[in-house]
Structure to design on (196 residues):
């Protein structure tokens, strides 16, 4: 599997919006990462979700879904082969970790009433210790834009957008796009570090 393909899956796993469909979409992406034909996600805070076609027989692998120390469920993957090679298993575990984190943030956003209204996000961004260009990048990311789409819209290169995101993560004390979206859409930016 190419690095480009893995980056595409990772970026897709980090797109929470719309929150209500994330459990299904995320499980599909994890299965896609290893070309599993079917899957079943058993989730603690959501109804179980199952692929179409429904899985038959015993799963090839069952992956725990954890965010930090909290177990949020498990994911059964049904691969056409009876077992996964070492690389496929490593990719499946990595994708399951990203999916778990997304599930946790999606649950939090849903329980806090979903995405904040546009004006709330604008207000949060105004109070954030960000430059105007960084605010533009965050606003596009929160609206569901991919890195390529942000680059196209802003006239920046993909590399420059990634550099902006690294700076934004540092300023806001987050470690991923998922955390950034959750922070902007669901928490008070006034409690965050001030501009340097």
């Amino acid at each position: 599997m190419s690095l480009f393909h893995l980056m595409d899956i990772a970026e897709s796993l980090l797109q929470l919006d719309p929150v209500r469909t994330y459990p299904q979409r995320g499980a599909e992406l994890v299965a896609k990462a290893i070309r599993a034909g079917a899957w079943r996600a058993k989730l603690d805070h959501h109804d179980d979700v199952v692929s179409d076609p429904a899985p038959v027989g015993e799963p090839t692998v069952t992956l725990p879904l954890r965010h930090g120390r909290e177990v949020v469920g498990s994911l059964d993957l049904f691969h056409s082969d009876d077992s996964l090679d070492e690389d496929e298993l490593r990719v499946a575990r990595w994708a399951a970790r990203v999916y778990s984190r997304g599930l946790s943030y999606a649950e939090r956003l849903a329980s806090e009433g979903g995405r904040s209204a546009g004006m709330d996000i604008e207000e949060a961004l105004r109070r954030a210790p960000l430059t105007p260009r960084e605010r533009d990048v965050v606003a596009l990311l929160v609206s569901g834009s991919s890195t390529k789409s942000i680059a196209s819209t802003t006239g920046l290169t993909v590399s420059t957008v990634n550099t902006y995101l690294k700076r934004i993560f540092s300023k806001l004390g987050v470690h991923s796009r998922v955390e950034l979206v959750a922070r902007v859409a669901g928490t008070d930016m006034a409690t965050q570090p001030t501009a340097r």
